[in-house]
Amino acid sequence: MTIPTDPETGEFVRSPNHFAARITADGRDGWPVEPGRYRLVVSRACPWASRALVVRRLLGLEHAISLAVADPIQDERSWRFTLDPDGRDPVLGIRFLSEAYHKAESRYDGGISVPAVVDVPSGKLVTNDYPQITLDFSTEWTKYHRDGAPDLYPERHRDEIDEINRAVYKDVNAAVYEAGFASKQSAYEDAYSRLFARLDQLSGRLSGQRFLVGDTITEADIRLFTTLVRFDAVYHGHFKCNRNKLTEMPVLWAYARDLFQTPGFHDTVDFDHIKRHYYQVHTQINPTRIVPVGPDLSGWTTPHGREELRGRPFGDGTPPPPPPADDVLSATE
């Protein structure tokens, strides 16, 4: 995998989300909400894709939006379906996610990213706009939410959620990559400093409240969780984000365990996929492709004590039922 960096500054350059059509209840972009029509393509290794996995589980959209899981190990053609029989996704009939990208735009030569939502009848990619995908699951697919589904993007809190999401994206979600992929010392140190300054700020916020916004789980918690759950396994060592481990930051460690132990979170996390992807794909950082044995991840199931703070994960709703058999992770079976 070639990591794109700015030759002058050494900063990591992230590819834009080129395909930004929206699947909406009124179909205004030409893609109407329709159960069974779309397939969500993810890697369980990818934090951006993991957001969509968590939201889909919490809202109960498994039976409305099918799931394709890519191999955590990419080759030069990017995400591939080598986990499936004959190396083909059984619904889309393709070997590589890039095939859906090129059906949507034959001359597309940009990055191939997950999550991606593909229109099953045409085989075309609809969107890879990961920030909007989860918001639309919450706001446009409401007709197909399960009974008791939480409101992950409550209207009264949207401005606050959006503000926190912007800060968390810049200084946490993206900053770990900017530190890990930097090609110059100054770029690395800038990302490192922003990351830990923001984690300290978030720790202070969460010391007196159970969730980031309001009294229930929201989109903001999900976006922070997917970085925190990967922190000790890959970002601390592989990306040199090593001022502290997550386990050495008491408030954030308890907060992350609280979420992990909530149905809909831990059952989307596959530490094996996470570790193999980062250590075996990023050969510019880890040319030996050796996957470390540690750290010990058993602490994720230990008591967190966050129940003493005000807040209920699902508010007046209910936890999701166990995942469908097709969605069960090998690590959690």
Automatic annotation (TrEMBL):
Compositionally biased intervals (Basic and acidic residues): 304-313
InterPro entries the UniProt entry points to: Glutathione-S-Trfase_C-like (IPR010987), Glutathione-S-Trfase_C_sf (IPR036282), Glutathione_S-Trfase (IPR040079), GST_Omega-like_C (IPR047047), GST_Omega/GSH (IPR016639), Thioredoxin-like_sf (IPR036249)
Domain of life assignment: Bacteria
Region (Disordered) location: 294-333
All copies of domain GST C-terminal, residue ranges: 154-281
Protein name: Glutathione S-transferase family protein
Gene source species: Amycolatopsis acididurans
Upper classification of the organism: Bacteria, Bacillati, Actinomycetota, Actinomycetes, Pseudonocardiales
